[in-house]
Amino acid sequence: MANALEETGHQSVRFTVYEDLGHNSYTRVYAGEDLYQWLLGQRLPRERDDERTAVPGGAETER
Questions:
Q1: Who contacts 53 (Cβ-Cβ below 8 Å, separation ≥6)?
Q2: How big is the CA angle at 40 (ends 18 and 9), to the nearest 5 degrees?
Q3: For residues 34 and 28, what is the distance between their CA atoms, to the nearest angstrom?
Q4: Which of 15, 41, 50, 53 is a good FRET partner for 21, with 20 to 30 A between their CA atoms?
Q5: pLDDT in tens, 26-35
Q6: 3-class state of residue 39 by DSSP
Q7: Phi and psi for 62 in degrees, rounded to 5?
Q8: Coil, strand or helix: which one is 36?
Q9: Which pLDDT belongs to residue 46?
């Protein structure tokens, strides 16, 4: 998965293997701060001002 993301242009892929843990590795991930800091740092791209924007009811409006 990490290789596929890098091949499509994602530059900050991080893949961690916890060799001392089996299937239960998620408990260590959820106990740390890294995952939550990453989640909070994500943002959707801003729309350009000249794009059309859908409004309730299915109509479009110029921004």
A1: 47, 60, 61, 63
A2: 70
A3: 11
A4: 41
A5: 999 999 999 9
A6: helix
A7: -80, 140
A8: helix
A9: 86
